[in-house]
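User: I've been trying to design a sequence by hand for this structure and keep getting stuck. Would you show me what you'd pick, starting by listing the structure so we're on the same page?

Assistant: Good idea, let's start from the same input. This is the structure you sent:
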């Protein structure tokens, strides 16, 4: 199969791109997401695919969607940010474009993209952890995308890491993404600023005393410029991240763990504390070959590229 279209449906934006067999994006288009109207959403996806088809010979469509995707690779069972319940998205889009369509969970699609063309292209096993507003993840093991029995495997953000810990958006307490995510980074930055300790002064000055103006990229930027408080905040997130990854690797024994998502833009400021916490926490770390922790390389295009590739392969081998 030659060119395919990868579609990444986010809460506000649909990004679609024509991708070749080497994972290279040839052209992209975007559309706003009609998040409350599933029919309009399928129309919008079809429209963007049709626009791309006018200029490229496209043979299939892969869609990455944030939500539970049925093992049939067509139906979205549930999505946190879009009004989908048992939504036959793949069938709807297929009816409109008359091309083969596969739907995959967005984090799975991103893991597949990184495995095929990014941080995992030299190995057979890849665990992708995406650190953004929450934590997402996907696993490729022995060259196969791991979907679980019902298609909804690997919701790692909701591993409980602190009994009776912070309340999570999922309604439970102590989930990993409450401690190792962009949301956690910003929450802690606001808390520390509120403490009025001397080390919080540069951050307070930066936002003119308005803690609601603090964002994840801002903390990263200040950390890069050498601000000790912001470095410390990234170290804390890295520590939580590394400890969680150690538990996952103890179970999965993956060769590479790629860290992606918005917070990974901090680069080594995140990767170094993550790696030290990982090695410190991994059981019997000195008696095993440890996973290599790396930054993901495809950025926010991993899902689109992975979805496009899944349109031409079932997620089984290279
Ligand atoms: Zn949760």
């Amino acid at each position: 199969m030659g060119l395919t279209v990868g579609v990444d449906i986010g809460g506000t934006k649909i990004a679609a791109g024509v991708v070749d067999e080497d994972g290279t994006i040839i052209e992209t288009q975007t559309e706003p997401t009609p998040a409350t109207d599933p029919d309009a959403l399928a129309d919008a996806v079809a429209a963007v695919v049709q626009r791309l088809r006018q200029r490229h010979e496209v043979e299939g469509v892969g869609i990455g969607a944030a939500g539970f995707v049925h093992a049939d690779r067509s139906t979205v069972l549930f999505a946190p940010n879009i009004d989908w319940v048992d939504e036959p998205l793949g069938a709807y889009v297929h009816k409109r474009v008359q091309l083969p369509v596969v739907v995959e969970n967005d984090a799975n699609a991103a893991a597949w993209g990184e495995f095929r063309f990014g941080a995992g292209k030299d190995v057979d096993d890849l665990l992708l952890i995406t650190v953004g507003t929450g934590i997402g993840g996907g696993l490729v093991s022995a060259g196969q995308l791991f979907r679980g029995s019902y298609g909804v495997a690997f919701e790692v953000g909701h591993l409980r890491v602190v009994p009776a810990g912070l309340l999570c958006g999922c309604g439970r307490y102590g989930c990993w993404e409450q401690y190792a995510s962009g949301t956690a980074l910003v929450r802690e930055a606001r808390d520390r600023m509120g403490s009025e300790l001397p080390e919080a002064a540069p951050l307070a000055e930066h936002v003119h005393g308005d803690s609601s103006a603090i964002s994840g990229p801002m903390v990263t930027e200040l950390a890069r410029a050498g601000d000790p408080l912001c470095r410390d905040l990234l170290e804390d997130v890295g520590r939580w991240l590394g400890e969680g990854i150690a538990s996952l690797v103890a179970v999965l024994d993956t060769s590479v763990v790629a860290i992606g998502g918005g917070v990974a833009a901090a680069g080594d400021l995140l990767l170094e504390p993550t790696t030290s916490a990982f090695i410190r926490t991994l059981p019997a770390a000195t008696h095993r070959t440890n996973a290599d922790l790396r930054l993901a390389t495809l950025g926010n295009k991993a899902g689109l590229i992975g979805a496009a590739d899944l349109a031409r392969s079932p997620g089984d081998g290279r």
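That's my pick for every position. To get oriented when you compare it with your attempt: The CA atoms of residues 97 and 267 lie 40 Å apart. The pocket of zinc ion is lined by residues 158, 168, 170, 172, 175 (CB under 6 Å).
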